[in-house]
Amino acid sequence: MNIDAPHPFDVALTLQSDAPGHYLGEAPAAYWNMVGPFGGITAAVLVRAVFPHPDVLGEVLSLNANYGSALAAGAYEVHALPVRTNRSTQHWTLSILQAGVDGSPVVTITGTAVTAVRRNTWGTSDMQAPVVLLPHQVPKAQPDFDAGWLQRYELRPVEGDLPPVWDGSGEHSLSPVWMRDAPPRPLDVCSLAALADVFFPRVWLRRAHQVPAGTVSMTVYFHATTDELAATGDGYLLGQARAGVSQRVF
C-alpha cells in the first residue's frame, strides 16, 4: 500500500458538508458486506457526523444505531442534530437517507448519540480483563466466504472462531478476539465504533449452523477518553462477544 495514500477507513468516512449538521457521503465499496456496507462502517459514519458540527460539546459517550435497511451503492446524506445541550451533556439525533425509487429521500438508518465534557472525578471498573494468549500466539481468522469488509480487518480469535463444519454441534457463543484495522491504523472513537460490529453472528457459533443474520440495532458505550484511545496507537484491541439470550422475536 502507498504510505502516502489515505487509509481506506478514512476514505470511507469522507463527508462533504453543505450546512451545519448536513453531510453528503458515498457508500464505501471497500467495506462491502453481503447486501450493503458492513454495519460497523455505517456506525462510524454516524459518529463522524457529530464532530464537524459547530455546536458539538465534549466527546462521544454513546451511540445507538438502528438499521432500517442496508445502504445501497451510491450517494447518501447524513443529518446530525443536537436536540438538547446541558452543562455537561449533549443529546443528538442522527439519520442517514438515500434516494428511494421515486428519487425522494428515504431514511435507511436512524440513531442517537450522547456527547459530554469528561470531568475529573471518581471512577472504577468491576470488570476484569480476560486472561488470553497474546496476538502473535493466535492465528488470523480465515473466513471461507467473500465479503470485502473482512479484508479491512485483522481478526485473531483466541477461541470462538467460525465452526469448521456447519453441523449443528455448537455449544457456546463466547469469542474473545484480538482485532485491528488492516492495514494498521491508530485507534479513535470512529474506528472503535466500527470494531464493535466485527463479531460474526452469535447464532452461527451457538448453533454451528449458518443462517441469515444481520445487525438491526447496536449500542456502543465509549468509556475510554480520546487521549486513552490515541495512546493505544495502531496495536491490537481485545474484544469479547457472547450471546446472553437467543430466541425468535419476529
Mean pLDDT: 92
Distance between the termini: 45 Å
Structural class: alpha+beta
User: Percent of residues in helical segments?
Assistant: 10-25%
Helical run tally: 5
- What spatial form do the alpha-carbon principal axes imply? globular
Oligomer: single chain
Described by strand count, sense and barrel closure, the largest sheet is: 7 strands, antiparallel
- Low-confidence regions: none
Strand content: 25-35%
Sketch the topology as an H/E string, one letter per element: HEEHEEEEEEHHEHE
Tell me the total number of β-strands.
Answer: 10
Strand order of the largest sheet: 1-2-4-5-6-3-9
**What Rg, in angstroms, do the CA atoms define?**
19 Å
Explain this structure to me?
It is a single chain. The protein has 250 residues and is α+β, with helices and mostly antiparallel strands. Helices cover 14% and strands 30% of the residues. It contains five helices and ten strands; from the N terminus they run αββαββββββααβαβ. It has helices at residues 8-12, 39-50, 189-195, 202-207, 226-231, and strands spanning 16-19, 22-26, 59-67, 75-85, 89-99, 105-116, 153-157, 175-181, 217-221, 237-241. The strands form two sheets. It has a seven-stranded antiparallel sheet, covered by helices on one side. A three-stranded antiparallel sheet has the order 7-8-10, with no helix packed on it. A hairpin with a 5-residue loop joins strand 5 (89-99) and strand 6 (105-116). Helix 2 packs antiparallel against helix 3. The longest helix is centred in the N-terminal third of the chain and has 12 residues, at 39-50. The protein is globular and about 50 Å long. The model has no long low-confidence stretch (mean pLDDT 92).
